[in-house]
Amino acid sequence: MKAKILYLAWAIYRDIVYSGLDEHISRDQRKKIVRFNQFVFLALLINLFCVITYFYHKLYISALINITSAYFFLVAYYLNSKRRLEIGRIVSVINVNIYLIVISYVEGLRASEYLLFFPYFLVLTFVVSIRRNYKELVLVYALTVASLLLCFKISPMTNDIQIMTDVLYTKLSTTILAISFILTIIFSYAILRVNKDNEVAILEEKKFGDTIYNTSLDGVFIIFSLSNIVATCNNRALELFGVKDKREIEGTQIEKWFDEDHIKKFNSIEQAISHESRNWQGELAFNTKDGHIFFGYVSVVPFSYRDIRYTKVSILDISNVKMAEFELMKAKEKAETASKVKSRFLSNMSHELRTPLNGIIGASNLLLQEDYLGTQKPHLEILKFSSEHMMLLISDILDFNKIEAGKLELSEVPVNIKEFVRKVISQFENQVNGKGLQFKKEIDDRLDLELFTDETRLYQILSNLLSNAIKFTNQGSISLEVKKLFSSSTKATIQFIVKDTGIGIPKDKHKEIFDSFTQADVNTTRKYGGTGLGLAIIKKLISMFNSELILESEEGKGSMFYFTLELKINEDRKLFINEDKTRSLQMLTGVKVLIAEDNPVNLSVAKRFMLKWGIEVHEATNGREALNKFKTDEYDVLLIDLEMPEMDGVTALKEIRKLNTVVPAVAFTAAVYDNMQADLLQKGFTDFIHKPFRPEDLHGKISFLVSSMKRA
User: Fold this and answer.
1) Highest mean pLDDT: which of 9-18, 204-213, 221-230?
2) Average pLDDT for residues 602-612, to the nearest whole number?
3) Largest CA distance in the chain
4) Residue 546 CB burial class (10 angstroms; 0-12, 13-18, ≥19)
5) pLDDT-based confidence at 369, cuts 50/70/90?
6) What pLDDT band is residue 104 in, cutting at 50, 70 and 90?
7) d(C-alpha 593, C-alpha 637), whole Å
8) Are 77 and 37 in contact (CB under 8 A)?
9) Average of pLDDT values for 186-195?
10) Using alpha carbons only, how large is the chain's radius of gyration in Å?
11) β partners of residue 309
12) Of residues 602 and 17, which shows the higher confidence score?
């Protein structure tokens, strides 16, 4: 039973003392809260004891004063539990001082209530931290001293507010003296205990700091800034410099440990940072005790402690890094030398091989054009084919070398993609038909436009893919598919696909065939020939176009290679118009059109045709200008580009629709994407027309929209 009572009492005490704590608060704040709660708990116990004593002696006014004081202590406790410690402390300090003044006045100095001021002085040092809140402690002491002086000044020796006999005064005085004595002992012990805990904590912090200092991977010197004498160093510094005892380093000049070439550099660094109060980092060389040199990455930091200027020098050993750097430099020099030798060798060999090959190819062509025996023709054709094939191999090797060396650059010239693909097809049509294969061609009609690209390298990619397809296909078909996936007003995304029904490639060889000088297997090399450079070259070329060559193939079922290029549209391209069709179009006199287009070429061409049809044309170069013109005039049709500066076409039409919801609006755009028509209708457009446009299409849309508006 006794144990249960003690446990219950301890649980109540713990709940009271640890009230207001939170896992997110700091350790110092936690101590403040606990000490304050302990102070309030003890004050409430004293108040309770005094209330019981005063009721026993029928001193009801004194009891009421104690009850009031206890109430304010409870308020301070509540504020602390709500994380308002500072307000709670202010309330409690004022409460104690007022309580002692009032109770001394009511009972008289003879009751000795003022003696409680003396343990209260000790309480203040317990509740308020001297180290961290010195000014606050001085202020509270000053308030308490003032309260004590006021107490002596206004309080009489005895007072007749309550009935108090000499015996009662003696009892009260003795009781207050005992309470003061007990409180003084309690708080003296508490202060000593706190100081001891603080001392242990300081020693632990110092031990922890020393552990960090001595287990650092950096060697650390602390030197006096004025004399450059080493004050101390850590254990890592002893290891770096081959020293067993700190006394061999402490008291020495720091210059003793630097390499001769770096002493002046360090001195200049130290002078610079000491004047400018900044840090320095860089590489310096040092001497060990045995005279060995090592390189360190150094951090130099100036600081002051007790008005003495120090410099902290941290040294990270980077000897291995410097050694690796040196080896890397040597390897780089060797690689550069080897690359130059290789380039020079390939250049010389190319010249030496091309010269006789040129003669062989020329002679074989001449012999084929002259009289020769019928039995000689196969030999002459073999001679011509072999020499031309060898020339292609030399070109492949040189191209591969240029790509590897990063010397191959792509050019950007305007190319009509549709015409370009047709040229490629014409080059290979005879070869495909010659093997008895079917040549399937699928070219997107929307590719009749000019895009900026490197025509030579794009031809090299397609010709290599088609050549491989023809080489490895004995029956079936070869197909080339080129289509436009989507486009904006400035760029178009084109996909190229080459398929065949040839021998195919095993799945485990899909990656290997893109390696240099590699083919699917030895039998392929023996049967079909080749160096295995072709796919390696075109894969690297396609990567230079910021794309990727993708393979889908299965052994015995053919192969498909495809890649996608994003190319810039030539905005200054010429629009090819069929004048015969435009002449037969009927006049649209009286129709008023507002065209918003920022490209002057497109604007001029569209305006030219509309003027021919008798249309009154008003022009704007951006969406904002189109909106302003619409506000001041009426139009039958709006022709609006989607992408314009200041305000784009979609935003401009959104504002126009606030003014007029029925005027026909045609999107004048080069963009192509899925669900385009539905998207533009949702944004308020009536219809759209692609750039480059056909005049008859533009005429038909304007004519239809105008007539529809009249019928409505």
Assistant:
1) 221-230
2) 84
3) 158
4) exposed
5) low
6) confident
7) 5
8) yes
9) 74
10) 49
11) 304
12) 602
pLDDT of residue 398: 58
Mean pLDDT to the nearest integer, 321-344:
74
Four-CA torsion 491, 492, 493, 498, nearest 10 degrees:
-140
What SS3 state is found at 486?
strand
Q: What angle do CA 368, 369, 370 make, to 5 degrees?
A: 95
Tokens of 601: 């070429």
Report the amino acid identity of residue 489.
Answer: S
Average pLDDT on 197-207 reads 68
Distances (CA, A) of 451 to 277, 491, 505, 566, 571: 59, 8, 33, 10, 9
Secondary structure class of 195 (helix, strand, coil): helix
Q: Do the beta carbons of residue 569 and residue 490 sit within 8 Å? A: yes
pTM score of the predicted model: 0.38
Residue whose tokens read 């792509």: 410
List Cβ neighbours of 498 (8 Å cut-off, separation of 6 or more): 462, 465, 466, 469, 478, 479, 480, 560, 561, 562
Vertex 14: Cα angle to 10 and 18 (nearest 5): 175
Residue 531 CB-density burial (10 A; 0-12 exposed, 13-18 middle, 19+ buried) = middle
Angle, nearest 10°, between helix axes 134-154 and 117-127?
Answer: 170
- pLDDT at position 639, please? 93
Residue 600: its H or E element: helix 600-612
Structure tokens at 208: 């922890």
> Tokens in use for 671?
């963009």
Taking the C-alpha atoms of residue 387 and residue 381, their distance in angstroms, rounded to an integer, is 10
Report pLDDT for 462: 87
Residue with tokens 């304007």, as numbered in its chain? 702
Side-by-side strand order, sheet with 230-233:
230-233, 219-224, 308-317, 293-305, 280-287
- What is the pLDDT confidence band of residue 496, given thresholds at 50, 70 and 90? very high
What percent of the chain has a predicted confidence (pLDDT) above 70? 75
Q: Does 181 have pLDDT greater than 60? A: yes
DSSP state of 253: B
pLDDT at 350: 55
Instruction: Evaluate if residue 578 carries a pLDDT over 50.
Output: no
Q: What pLDDT, in 10s, does the model give residues 141-164?
A: 788 788 888 888 888 888 878 888
What is the residue-wise DSSP string for 235-249?
A: HHHHHHTT-S-GGGT
Paired strand residues for 500: 478, 559
* DSSP-derived 3-state class of residue 597: coil
Cα separation, 464 vs 480, whole angstroms: 13
Residues 532/517, Cβ–Cβ less than 8 Å: yes
Give all strands (DSSP E) within 306-382, no chain letters. 308-317
In whole angstroms, give the CA distance from residue 437 to residue 473: 8
pLDDT at 516 over 50: no
Distances (CA, A) of 330 to 294, 320, 323, 334, 668: 20, 15, 11, 6, 61
User: Cβ distance 37 to 88 under 8 Å?
Assistant: no
Whether 439 and 432 have beta carbons less than 8 Å apart is answered as: yes
H or E element that contains 458: helix 455-471
Rounded Cα distance between 164 and 108, Å, is 10
How far apart, in whole angstroms, are the C-alpha atoms of residue 175 and residue 53?
Answer: 10
Peptide bond into 692 cis (omega under 30): yes
Pairing of the two strands 477-487 and 438-443: parallel
DSSP for 623-684, written as a single string = HHHHHHHHHHS--SEEEEESS-SSS-HHHHHHHHHHH-SSS-EEEEE--B-TTHHHHHHHTT
pLDDT band for 572, please (50, 70, 90 cuts): low
Reported as type and span, the H/E element at residue 282 is strand 280-287
3-state secondary structure of 313: strand
- Show the tokens assigned to 652: 């401009």
By C-alpha distance, which of 712, 700, 705, 711 is closest to 635? 705
Alpha carbon distance, N-terminus to C-terminus of the chain: 101
Question: Distance of alpha carbon 400 from its chain centroid, rounded?
Answer: 36
